[in-house]
């Protein structure tokens, strides 16, 4: 590894000299003629892939090409929630692997990603939801994942300000995963970028892929706004734009692009000590270290590549929030933004080879892909390095839709906007 190591000593040293000696966290790499592996997309998944390729698989001639800047995509736009409370056997081992990687990530990357295992509590409002939560909790525990069913009084003891007295859908309890929580999203992008750069990965920003050069069914490299970049293997990790980029190689993906919005309120004194999700509407909230409520709800519900959303969804999300916590009715909203989601046909991701030799796909993360970042990077790196799926990502095949082997966690069928 090259570059400085962050520590309490480097912090003290820089404090004493007015923070004048910090170096840029990663180099401004310029594209080389050719690489062993080029990853398209400098989001969390692309950067994590490059890092694990170098760190775990010992590969060095690797580049990440990003059309904008590191952290400008969904990795820097999400509501920062991480959890592994899944139901289906295709998903549980993968997301639990991710949770374990989050737990050691800061030491691994030598970067403070503000991993906060403050707990994720899914509220229940009727008997059917309680049955579903019991089933999910049992599936989690059978797979070694922590899960606790809380009754109404246990929820009230922890979150007394929720509407218990006069709610249209009274709270009956909740399913808690204590190891779930939040992670500072930009720090994840910066931490992986810095760690990958230290291992020799070229991170090339402001470099948009405009074409994929294929000859005789094999990938040769990428046409970019900074010239042609040759590659033995290309990995696509361009969440939200996967269909458009894959189409450059003649592929049509089982994915639609949709907008999801996020919101941050003004700073408030600490009062929510975990992540809470509302079961009677689609609303999830946590409180940032600065005191702002960070929350979101449903996707906008129509196909779009715009990184901004529309007012009817703002209204819907705020209604849900106030129904759950009437006391926030006078809180001011500070910021709101949108990101583009790769919504797959069954709500689960794809990490697989494609029909073009040397072209690999990491896509379909819907609006839960941030929590998957470490495992997605590790499994995609494994696939790229070894040409075989990682054991926890075997189910994420591209051909599963044709085979009827879908992983439909929500039981919604082939309707991407409902997953
Ligand atoms: C508002 C919102 C809230 C969310 N909340 C959560 C949450 O709480 N928990 C959770 O687990 N997930 C959440 N998600 C989902 C999560 O953020 C995404 O699934 C995940 O970040 C996608 O992977 P990524 O980080 O690699 O994507 P991105 O950061 O979007 O990376 C993809 C990159 O590809 C680049 N790219 C695209 N086309 C090209 C091209 N032609 N050439 C070069 N580069 C290209 C883009 O510029 C982008 O930087 C949320 C998403 C949004 C938008």
Describe this structure in words.
It is a single chain. The chain contains ten helices and 18 strands. The protein is α/β, with parallel strands linked by helices and 419 residues long. The strands form three sheets. Strands 1, 2, 8, 9, 10, 11, 17 and 18 form an eight-stranded mixed sheet that branches. An eight-stranded mixed sheet has the order 5-6-4-13-14-15-12-16. The model has no long low-confidence stretch (mean pLDDT 96). It has two domains: 26-111 and 185-254 and 346-418, FAD/NAD(P)-binding domain (3-Layer(bba) Sandwich), CATH 3.50.50.60; 120-179 and 257-344, D-Amino Acid Oxidase, Chain A, domain 2 (2-Layer Sandwich). 27% of the residues lie in helices and 26% in strands. It has helices at 8-16, 44-55, 92-109, 127-142, 152-158, 185-198, 242-247, 311-324, 373-386, 400-403, and strands at residues 34-40, 62-65, 81-82, 120-124, 148-151, 173-177, 181-182, 202-204, 209-215, 218-224, 227-236, 255-267, 275-278, 283-287, 292-303, 333-344, 350-353, 359-363. Residues 40-46, 65-68, 72-75, 77-81, 208-209, 237-241, 245, 260-262, 296, 339, 365, 367-371 line the site of flavin-adenine dinucleotide (FAD). The site of flavin-adenine dinucleotide has 39 residues, from helix 2 and strand 12.
């Amino acid at each position: 590894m090259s570059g400085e190591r962050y520590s309490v000593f480097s912090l003290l040293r820089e404090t004493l000299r007015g923070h004048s000696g910090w170096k840029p966290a990663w180099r401004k790499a310029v594209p080389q003629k050719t690489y062993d592996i080029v990853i398209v997309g400098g989001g969390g998944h692309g950067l994590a892939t490059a890092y694990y390729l170098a760190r775990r698989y010992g590969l060095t001639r690797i580049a990440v090409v990003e059309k904008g800047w590191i952290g400008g995509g969904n990795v820097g736009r999400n509501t920062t929630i991480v959890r592994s409370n899944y139901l289906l056997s295709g998903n549980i081992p993968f997301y639990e692997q991710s949770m374990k990687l989050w737990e050691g990530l800061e030491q691994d990357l030598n970067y403070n990603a503000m991993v906060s295992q403050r707990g994720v509590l899914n509220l229940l409002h009727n008997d059917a939801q309680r049955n579903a939560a019991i089933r999910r909790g049992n599936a989690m525990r059978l797979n070694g994942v922590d899960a606790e069913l809380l009754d109404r009084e246990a929820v009230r003891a922890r979150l007394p300000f929720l509407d218990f007295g006069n709610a249209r859908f009274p709270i009956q309890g909740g399913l808690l995963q204590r190891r779930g929580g939040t992670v500072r999203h930009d720090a994840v992008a910066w931490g992986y970028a810095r760690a990958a750069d230290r291992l020799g990965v070229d991170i090339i920003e402001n470099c948009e892929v405009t074409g994929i050069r294929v000859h005789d069914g094999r990938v040769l490299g990428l046409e970019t706004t900074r010239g042609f970049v040759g590659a033995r293997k290309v990995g696509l990790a361009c969440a939200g734009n996967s269909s458009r980029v894959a189409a450059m190689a003649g592929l049509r993906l089982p994915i639609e692009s949709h907008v999801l919005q996020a919101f941050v309120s003004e700073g408030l004194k600490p009062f929510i000590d975990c992540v809470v999700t509302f079961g009677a509407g689609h609303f999830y909230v946590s409180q940032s270290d600065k005191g702002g409520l960070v929350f979101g709800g449903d996707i906008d519900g129509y196909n779009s590549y715009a990184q901004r959303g529309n007012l009817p969804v703002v209204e819907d999300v705020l209604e849900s929030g106030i129904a759950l916590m009437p006391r926030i009715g006078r809180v001011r909203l500070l910021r709101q933004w949108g990101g583009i989601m790769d919504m797959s046909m069954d709500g689960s991701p794809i990490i697989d080879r494609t029909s073009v030799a040397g072209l690999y796909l990491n896509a379909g993360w819907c609006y839960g892909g941030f929590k998957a970042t470490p495992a997605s990077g590790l499994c995609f790196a494994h696939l790229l390095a070894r040409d075989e799926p990682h054991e926890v990502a075997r189910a994420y095949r591209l051909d599963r839709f044709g085979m009827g082997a879908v992983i439909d966690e929500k039981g919604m069928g082939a309707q991407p906007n409902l997953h």
